[in-house]
Amino acid sequence: MSTEVLALDSEKEKKPLPHGMSGIQVLVFIVSAMSIMILSLLDGSIVSSAVLPIVRDLDPAHGMDRFPWLITAYLLAATAAQPLYGKLSDSYGPRRIYLVALVAFLAGSALCATAQTLTQLILFRAVQGIGGGGLMSMTLIVIATLFPPKARAGRSNAGGMLVAAGLIAGPMIGGPLSQELSWRWIFLINVPVAALALGGVAWALRLPVRGTRQRVDPFDSMLIASATCALLLGVKKYGDLHTFSGQVVPYVFGGLAMTMFFVVRQLKAPDPLMPLTLFKDRVFRPSAILQFVGGFALFSLPVFLINYLNIVRGVDLNQVGLYLIPLAVGVIVVFFAWGKIVTRTGKCRAVLVATTATATAAAAGLGFTAADAPAWELNALLLLLGVGLGGVTQIALFMSQSAAPADQLGVVTTTSRFANMLGTTIGGTVLGAILSARFASTARDAGISDPDAAAAQLAGLTPARRDLVTDAFAHATSAVLLTAAGLMVLALLTALFMDDVDVNALVHEEPADPSAVAAAPTSEEDEEDARTDAEHPLPHSLHPHGAAGLGADGSGARGEGRRAA
Fold first, then answer.
1. Which of 40, 170, 271, 472 could form a disulfide with 443 if both were Cys (CB 3.0 to 4.6 A apart)?
2. Dist CA 161 CA 319 (whole Å)
3. Which residue spans within 227-356 are E strands per DSSP?
4. Using CB atoms within 10 A of its CB, is residue 456 exposed (0-12), middle (13-18) or buried (19+)?
5. 238-296: per-residue pLDDT in tens?
6. Which CATH number describes the domain made up of 1-215?
7. CB 497 within 8 A of CB 286
8. CA distance linking residue 335 with residue 351, whole number of Å
9. 3-class state of residue 80 by DSSP
10. Domain spans, the chain
């Protein structure tokens, strides 16, 4: 999607612009949002390619042992903050919470660039993770608020380009940037981009005034964040120890106990942080399963493929991004294709099933041929895997957002993202344990049992032992890919039985009593928005409640035509 097309869409097709926004404001917002999203995508992984300069500078004695916490701190903070972002967005409006996430990411990036110890850097990475985790979710919520489902599907190709850029650029930027300049530039580069995006979003973005201020329970927020951190730390310990005992048990059982307590509180709460009634919905429930399984089986695979290309195929880590271009092309292709198909047909499930089946077949194909696949076959399978990577969870999220009531759009989006991030983190650890176990059982004769040490020791081995190690790593990677393919069969069954969503049959009705939807302004910003409402009435298709299917009584019920029979 080019920005020029976005700016000219309304004039060429006479489509109404989003709420109170001019064409240039839409353009500025889209450019700002896309810029900050790609930074958020990169920052989840770019640090791993600058490990040696960071350790050498901040903690040469113990840095290698503590370095994984730089990754863990970001992921923990980003994942644990998801439920709170959704509730705050539904309660106070996505614009304000989006700006809060931007400020947190900007502050965290600046702090990381100035860290003097590894402990400080780990702490500041958590601050950055709170902001970075919110940026992706809040951008999705804001775009879903601005544009009706059919318009979002038609513009989906921009997201594909961002994901593809993240896949290629992440492994290639961190190393050279930290070697040629300084590892601090990994974070410093975020500061001017995030500052410009903050100014652009603050000036350009206009959203409908929220009529409710729901209570946000701080205890529930801390409870789910603590439970998430405990479970993910337990998973991390399991990944380190490869045994479910000792230090793993307190984290896992503590996390499960807090999760159960949280569920009980949500069942009794008049205004829950994460409404469990969402899981009764026949679109959201399978979508949440697809988010978790897709994260578990697909989103963790690029890391394993990078190591496979490095150890088995002998690709330098600084160049490995080039070998992932077929994967990135697959992501771009499916983003262009699914939006066009959904826009033309109005139906979503057929595209979801097709991309899920493609991902399943690609993972299985890679698993069966990893040891000896020729380059053309490897590239073809990576292309197909990219189709699944770009299609499964994104289409499922689009369907659940389209079927969501307006007052739950934030919770639906962030709960979906929460399931996906949990699946990705847990999947990476569990599949890593499978890789380690399989590698250790087949590489004994080479004298190496740890796959993490294989790359460093490979050059010093004799040709015969080197062949043993590469063959063992190839077969271990095959086990990971076949496990992922088996899980994707579950995802395929889930997609087949998921209710369809017909974006051509959405009902956009105005509530009978507008005062029941829009309460009196509570701040100067709300007063300005209210004046904008009076001067520029919101088009029917972009009404904040109509876009989510408010019934004629304003109750928030979905329109009957939302789902296909």
1. 472
2. 20
3. none
4. exposed
5. 877 777 777 788 888 888 999 999 999 888 888 888 888 888 888 899 999 999 999 99
6. 1.20.1250.20
7. yes
8. 11
9. helix
10. 1-215, 217-272, 278-500
